[in-house]
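Hello Y.,

Per our agreement to keep a running log of every chain we model this quarter, I'm adding this entry. I've kept the format consistent with earlier entries: sequence first, then predicted structure.
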Amino acid sequence: MRLSHEHILVVASLATASAFAPAKHHSRLHGNNNNKGAIVTTNDAVSFLASSPPQPQSAGRRQQRLAPLAVSFSSPGKASSAIPASEICPPSVTSPNDSPNPWEVHKFGGASLADAGLYRTVGDLLIRESSGRVMKKDEGDEEAEDEGRHSGPIPTMAVVSARGGMTDQLVAVVDSALQDIHRAEAELDRALEGQLAILADLAPPEITGPIEERMRKDARDILSVVQSLRMIRSVPPSVMEVVTGFGEIWSAQTLYAYLKHEGVKTAWIDAREVLIVKSANANAGLGEKGSSSSTGGVVPLWVDTAKKMEEWWNGEGLREGVNMADAEADDGSAPIVVATGFVATSDEGVPTTLKRSGSDYSATIFAKLVGSARVTMWKNTDGVYTADPRRVPEAFSISSLKYDEAMELAYFGAQVLHPSAMVPCIDSNIPVYVRNIFNPGFEGTVIQGRCSSLSEANKDGKVKNWKSNNGEIPIKGITSVDAVSLLTLEGASVIGGAEVAERFMGSMADADIDVLMVTQASSESSITVVVPENQGGAALGALRSTFELEISRSNVNSISLTDRPMAIVAIVGEGMAMQSGVSASFMSSLARANVNIRVIAQGSSERQVAVVVDASQASRALRAAHMAFTLSQTQLSVAILGGTGKVGSALIRQLNAQKESLSKILNFGVCVNAIASSSRMFTGRDGRCLAFFNEVDELLESDESEELDMDALTEMFGDDVNPHRIIIDCTNSDKVADYYERWMASGVNVISPSRNAAAGPLDRYRAIHAARRASAVEWQYESSVGSALPILTTLRDLIQTGDDVQLLRGCLSGTMAYVFNHVDEDTSFSDAVRMAVEQDFAENDIREDLGGLDACRKIVVLAREVGLDVSLEDVEVESLIPDEIRNKEYSGSTEEVNEAILEDLKALDGPMLERYTEAKSEGRALRYKFVIDVANKKCRCSLEGVDNTDTLYRLRENENLVAFETSRYTTSPLIVKGAAAGPDLAATGMFADLLRLGRAFVGAQA
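Predicted structure for the entry above:
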């Protein structure tokens, strides 16, 4: 007889049920309405009900698909209701062998069980934990006067996942069976032999022999079932769940073998024999890998499970010796029971699972069953972090969380803890510890207690700004959900808002779409929902089908789905309720980081605020928010160009000297992650800080350095996720200045002493400022005029306070000031210039000083600040050197060129001496003076003799001086004067610019 597809499917399902049924198959449950622990979800809450009747499938499915954004229970620190005695095991189980200590449950994930060494680590840790620990006052007996006493042996249960990678291997077995059964067999052999190799490494044959025999039989059963898949050409969800569950079954036996070999009183539980569950969607399959949104509506049937657990304890537990019926035979040691995570049996007797990441749920279910004092989730991190440390390097472990906060973090993507795992612990008020298997001495995170309800938080009706709470941070963590899409319906006002919302959400539920967030603009009857990216196409099709008639009649303007990846970023914390300014701090931090917000939503519990941003900006948003709430110190991400030059080298020395004080006093850090010379660059891997950036020459000569590529450097810095990015340009390159606009357009701040940008082509100058304003970033070039002197700052303050600047005059060349302070009868002009060069006061090409070009650029910078549209050619400049020197082509190094120029300058010694003598005879001093006549729009600089009534007369050494004549400063000008030549002072000016930016970033978050 030829079998139809339906016949084959039935046969395969029956074969699955019989081949993989637990050894002790329980009777099929009929008429059982004890649906304890049903989860009913709403848009903003999950209520754990002590008892609720079964719901129709359609209604249940629709409720399940409205993704929970928060969890709402009763008063903090208490169980939601009294736990019926029938839902937990009797005292013979909860107090094994009359132990004075309750059980403690430990859960280990696949990363903790990747190889034989890690199985040993886990086993040894369990032995230590079961032997007891020194008590604290807040642990066990709060009134104990003998704090520090030893607890005594602790009954211990370990719930284990499959070894690392095993679940994926078993999934591959099932998937490959559809195409090539030989490949499936090879995949299965690889999975099995990998587990057997670990088993053989942990215990001798007399222990491992029976276990190996069971594992090989399991593998034969798996192969017999997957062979039928080619006939039906599909994979029933039940087959995938049953096959993948063997990873946990094998893993539990492997750990059991090691403990047995170590002489421990131990046994292992196949959870399929004990854990009875009911699923709202029996065909849900495994769920998405790494998903933390739900366990597919799976809930334990507590009464039946408790009975099964008691049967196991009095049967297998007795045979294995963990249940000591004979008290005299008890050696006083605590039993260690190893249980399989992930797997269970349905109320119809069919093997099933708690879905992907469900082992956390297994651990808390067993903890409730045996009346555990605590559950410890052993991970590879030091607890629950304030943010994902891979994306926010400054993230740190949170010491404590409330159940509700932990679930909010989990729903919004935090992968450390599965949200459904909280439910049994909340029900029994069991604390959950999250600790690091590789750092067991660290206390990690404890999760316990309830958040206050909104009515309790608002009982006095007072609202306080969170910044007034003596440094108490209102949020506990920041998390994200990647790979989401926005589905938007616009302009359905003709239909009516209530009907639109009902039909919209109904279409999502009917299409099994997970709705993560909802926002609605009632004025236009427009709705946007956030859905997983891989469900976007199906959601779009379902919505178009639902509103097909309205679209054809133009009653709906449009239905659209975002065409690029998006991400949810959420802040979570109990302290947000009735605290003003939290959302403002969050949104402002994103604005300063140049992150665009597409959707905003806040849960009615006021424990979370979530936004949707472009996926490419998610990491920057996380870091910006993390800094905004002072969960981490503000970090400035810095690239230094021209780091081998005189100014760049001086700046790096100053940064190294002040690095610690910046952190302690100003509360921000400087992360230099890129340094470049004129030909080479060195960047921190993945944008990380350079730990030692004082030896610049060595870095740039190392094999890890690269040829300078300005486009690559620009792209790298544009992609930097730090919201506070700064490029410091210590070069004097016009080509580098061409990148300023591009940098600022991508949200990068620029600090530069170079006058090539601020005094360069007027069109480029305007474009740079336009990009600066558009991106709300800063262009700091204070040091381009007067080095560290606050000349530009003073000028801007005068203008911004409404003063009318009429005239600027003084001297802007420290080189010229030095030269004409030394020229006299004994010191020639060329010798004075040589002395200035030796003091590092002059430009690299001293003709820029002597020809007036350096002063001219500074004049243009100042003139543009007061609103004059001038360029270099608009300034009247007196050059102190003739054209034949100014235009002459010199060859050689910088030192050789300057030496040749100094030799040519000797021809000017005579004429300069004459000008000096003439000025002296008139009681004057030679000064290279500039004047900006704002009213007449005239700018000039020239060598003049000034008398002792002029402020320039007493100009010393390498000083600059600027006199501000304004409508307010009429009787006497405002004068800014001080030393301003040399790389150290130029670097100081740049450092001051950096400090200004750092203080602004910190202040914006204060």
